Amino acid sequence: MSRDTQLKERWEKLVDILSNQFSQGEDLDLDAIIYLIGVQEYGKVHREYKKDEKLNLMHIAICRLLEPYGFYEFEYFDDEGWPHYKVKENLPPLKAGEQSVLMKEAIVNYFLERKLID
């Protein structure tokens, strides 16, 4: 099985699992899944977030997802429990499709680590 085919199958399985759990079966998009990862990483799942906090949650998720690729490094948790990352290496310029594939791959790897999918 090619790497692309495997990624596609794992992505579809992951979207199905998360959509059934968090959106009554309506497929979650990439941004929604990134948001969920941010909430998971922040650790405060049962609360409402303001618009700027939602953006921060997505930023946390992106940093966490790209950390294994060497782009970010975790630094510390602040007094409110927000994780902070520093940039280790700037992302190379990517086309929209390339960005999407990179994020899907990083998300699949995140959930493989957590054994939600195999």
From TrEMBL:
Protein name: Uncharacterized protein
